[in-house]
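Marked as duplicate of an earlier ticket. Keeping the data here for the record.
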Amino acid sequence: MSVKQALVLVNMGGPASTEEIAPYMRAIFADPFILPLPWLLRGFVSNKIVKKRTQPVIEKYNLIGGKSPLLKWTEKQVKLMRRNDSPLFEHITHAYRYTSPTLDQTFASLKKGGYQSVTILPMFPHSSRAMTGSIEHEAKRLAKRHSITTYTIDAWGLHKEIIALQSEYLKSAMDEAGTGARVLFVAHGIPMREVKRGDNYPDK
């Protein structure tokens, strides 16, 4: 009997409306991988941040339609991947770390569907404790609860096929832009305390 396998694309998530911004921020700062403080102190600091930042964040979201575009693009990626019949995965879906559908909801649904193996694909090409570490930790916790085997594809941006494809698109864009075009590489930073704790994100 073959094992039913599913692939889950996992992203941070985002608010689908301005009403969801405060709960979204609260969920982020409740994560010890994001805000590594003792539980009570983390809750206190989280509430302070959310109270102070919600309105300014709402104003910025209103400039882009009042919701996160990440939701639309993640769903589009899943639909495109489903077009190609996978010889390995019977089902391809998505989950978010901080908004619905959450990893918890997705694992429960997969368990109900009889899936015994779940491969997690974080939608970040790098590895970082705060992002991919949080996702992998939560996935392992839920896999244990539902008796599902789980795997995580980590730091996939280092694969030579991905780099070659990115180079191809970049060269095409540079050729189209013409002489004088410049490429700006932008990356998230992480607190130095995380680097000292062994997070190798800067090396990526």
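See parent ticket for discussion. The chain has a mean pLDDT of 92.
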